[in-house]
Amino acid sequence: MDADPAVGLYIHVPFCRAKCAYCDFNSFAGLESLHGQYARAVTREVAAAVPTAWRTIYLGGGTPTVLPLSDLGQLLEAVQRGRSLAPDPEVSIEANPGTVDGAGLASLLRLGVNRLSLGIQSFDDAELRLLGRIHTTAEALEAFRAARRAGFRNISLDLIFGLPGQSLASWQASLQRALELGPEHLSLYALSVEAGTPLAGAIARGELARPDPDLAADMYELAEEACAAAGYLHYEISNWARQADLRCEHNLIYWRNEDYVGLGAGAHSWARGQRWANVASPLEYTALLFRGASPIASEEAIPRELEMGETMMMGLRLVDEGVSFERFRQRFGTDLRQKYASEIEELDRLDLLEVGADRMRLSPRGRLLANQVFYRFLPERA
Q1: DSSP structure string for 200-226
Q2: 206 backbone dihedrals φ, ψ, rounded to 5°
Q3: Cα separations (Å) of 246 from 29, 64, 104, 118, 225?
Q4: Which end of the chain is more exposed for a tag (fewer CB within 10 A), N or C?
């Protein structure tokens, strides 16, 4: 498929050392023998991609850092070969604390990675065991310190709240520990119990308590207060940055519903009204690329009404930026205040939206009930 110049590039690495209890991502443990072949397959897909300039590069998963450094280097070299990059592009990689050390982190910097996203999830060992994480609190702290010693100056930490049995005090302790480390970025997500995961099964059998949504809301409000007190900018519902230029530029592409290309097994792409996705199986993906075949498994044209609705849904996740009236008009040739007049009136009356002179954003209450806002802009809703 074609894509406009200067797009975000996402590379999916679907491998983990162990599958976490809550995870329903396209990721697999026990496929170490496929790592080298997979990396070579992705380089083939990179070479076949439409020539374009990459605005940002993001290696996600799974756990990209389970790949040998030689394979990661091969991927990053292929991405830059024959391509133009934005000036000083953001190059991010996701990592789990149990998969990195000082020497490896220094090598990632030399390969051009300049932003590290560490999947900490909790600073409580009992909670880490519940989640099925492979690291301990001590290993998480050491991974952060090793990244600093290696030279990383842009580190993001992921934490999850609303866990079964988690107390407000426990969440506060994890959050405070993260803030004391002083990362440039924080991603704080409420646990989503996904059907088919071991965690969902344990909850269904009564082995674990079902997460309390009211307590999770209290945890979210606590996070807003603590991060503000520590000087962090709350720029997206679940994301905070120490300053504006430390926001995740790659994810901003998603939230603004702009063009991006996804490579690798199960990766999705979006450009010029078209959405497409690769086969999910890394075995099938690798076989297709080595046969010279396309890995694309599905593609669809997105109707204009749906594109507008998704632009509203994603843009409203941005806390201060929200959805600009002028940007929406330039993109779709219509005034969103007229297009969604009844929806805006209702949501404003419910104190879920703030409508300003030049943009619209969620209210503080709206951030707690965001899904109640989003569905109103989607054409499929009843």
Answers
A1: HHHHHTTSSPPP-HHHHHHHHHHHHHH
A2: 80, 10
A3: 32, 22, 23, 15, 20
A4: C
Q: Quick count: other Cβ atoms within 10 Å of Cβ 267?
A: 27
* Rounded Cα gap, residues 31 and 18, in angstroms: 10
> Which backbone phi and psi does 92 adopt, to 5 degrees?
-105, 150
The phi and psi torsions of 300 (rounded to 5 degrees) equal: -150, 150
Which amino acid is residue 207, in one-letter code?
E
Residue 61 sits at the vertex; the CA angle it makes with 57 and 65, to the nearest 5 degrees, is 80
| Sheet of strand 233-236, all strands in order from the earlier edge strand to the far edge | 233-236, 239-241, 185-190, 155-161, 115-121, 84-95, 53-61, 7-13, 260-263, 268-271, 274-278, 296-301
Type and span of the H or E element at 7: strand 7-13
d(CA 229, CA 206): 38
Phi, psi of 337 (to 5 degrees): -70, -30
How far from 138 is each of 99, 142, 342, CA to CA, in Å? 14, 6, 52
Residues 6+ apart with CB under 8 A from 225: none
Q: Please give the model's pTM, rounded to 2 decimal places.
A: 0.95
Single-letter amino acid, residue 229: A
Q: Where are the alpha helices (DSSP H) in 236-297?
A: 249-255, 282-290
Q: How far is CA 328 from the centre of its chain?
A: 24
CA atoms of 193 and 198, how far apart (whole Å):
10
Angstrom distances, CA of residue 98 to CA of 30, 36, 154, 381: 16, 20, 19, 43
In tens, the pLDDT along 168-211 reads: 999 999 999 999 999 999 999 999 999 999 999 999 999 999 99
Residues 6+ apart with CB under 8 A from 86: 6, 53, 54, 55, 56
| CB-CB neighbours of 312 under 10 Å | 23
pLDDT tens-place string over residues 33-58: 999 999 999 999 998 887 678 899 99
